[in-house]
Specification:
Blueprint: E1 2-7, H1 12-22, E2 27-33, E3 46-47, E4 59-62, H2 66-79, E5 82-85, H3 92-102, E6 106-109, H4 115-130, E7 136-143, H5 153-165, E8 173-175, E9 189-195, E10 201-208, E11 213-220, H6 224-239, E12 243-245, H7 247-255
Parallel strand pairs: 1-2, 1-4, 2-3, 4-5, 5-6, 6-12, 7-9, 8-9
Antiparallel strand pairs: 7-10, 10-11
Helix pairs in contact: 1-6, 2-3, 4-5
Bound molecules: nicotinamide-adenine-dinucleotide.
Length: 256
């Protein structure tokens, strides 16, 4: 049985991961970490610090905030616990903390834990290699009104994939347009963030040619989609050597 510690446990994703873990006999939730004002009335098994739980052999699953992610990376490295991290919108210091932790413990980070988005990334790669280079690429994402970062980490990931496939750098990503922008430059990948209601996560990649266009789109309608992927990642890091892993490593290990 894998001992899980959930960070951001009272949040939308933390609760979805706990629900999915309860349905899997190979996991036991050892502790839940969140801000004290987010703890339920019965505080058993809750803390406001990961230091109360993380130990060698545990798997910490973190969907919290950039600060929460950074603190987790440092503590997991110090305690020898593996880390599965899903927080988006990290700054350079957060990315550096993740990289430093991966030198000491297994760390798996993904901006999107759904299997459908993993398939969308492969489909996008195939579509771009089948199409002429002059087709325009635009990404439109929609999320619920409480999301804190824009554009989504997944939209940035899809944009980076598309840029790499066209041989462009990250400077090609263009977030939103307004004013007298002039004609669209060919070497540009547009990213547009729509916010409202309760959308869980919707990403469309539009590939537009002359007189025809193609849309590749993934819609997550339930956070269980991310939670199941995060648990597959938890099983993977529980057995892995120290290092930085992605969801692709989990998917290719399955095929072995
Ligand atoms: P949420 O606001 O519902 O939950 C976040 C929880 O983390 C809150 O309960 C908050 O109190 C807690 N928290 C914040 N900072 C903390 C800290 N320093 N220590 C302990 N707890 C802390 O948000 P959410 O919708 O669950 O999303 C959380 C993060 O996960 C966001 O960055 C979001 O973009 C990302 N996300 C990733 C995926 C993915 O597949 N990778 C999917 C959905 C959401």
């Amino acid at each position: 049985v894998i001992a899980l510690v959930l960070v951001g446990a009272a949040g939308r994703m933390g609760r979805a991961v706990e629900e999915a873990a309860l349905a899997s006999p190979d996991f036991a939730v050892k502790g839940r970490v969140d801000r004290a004002d987010r703890h339920p009335a019965d505080r058993g098994g809750w803390s406001d610090t990961l230091a109360d739980f993380a130990a060698r052999g545990d798997v910490v699953v973190e969907f919290s905030s950039p600060e929460g992610c950074r603190a987790c990376a440092e503590l997991c490295a110090a305690r020898g616990a593996a880390l599965v991290s899903g927080t988006t919108g990290l700054d350079a210091a957060g990315e550096a903390a993740i990289a430093a932790a991966a030198a000491r413990v297994p760390v798996l980070r993904s901006a999107n834990f759904s299997l459908g988005v993993a398939a969308l990334r492969r489909a996008l790669d195939a579509a771009l290699s089948a199409l002429p280079r002059d087709w325009d690429i635009e990404i439109v994402e929609r999320h619920h009104r409480r999301k804190l970062d824009s554009p989504s980490g997944t939209a940035l990931l899809l944009g980076a994939d598309a840029a790499a496939s066209r041989g462009l750098g990250s400077g090609a990503l263009r977030q939103g347009r307004s004013g007298r922008t002039g004609p669209r430059p060919a070497a540009e990948i547009g990213i547009h963030a729509v916010r409202g209601g309760s959308w869980v996560g919707d990403h469309a990649v539009l590939l537009a040619g002359e007189g025809e266009w193609l849309e590749l789109r993934h819609v997550a309608s339930d956070r269980g989609a991310f939670a199941h992927g995060a648990l597959a990642a938890a099983r993977f890091v529980a057995e892995a050597r120290p290092g930085a892993y992605t969801l692709d490593d989990v998917l290719s290990a399955k095929g072995r």
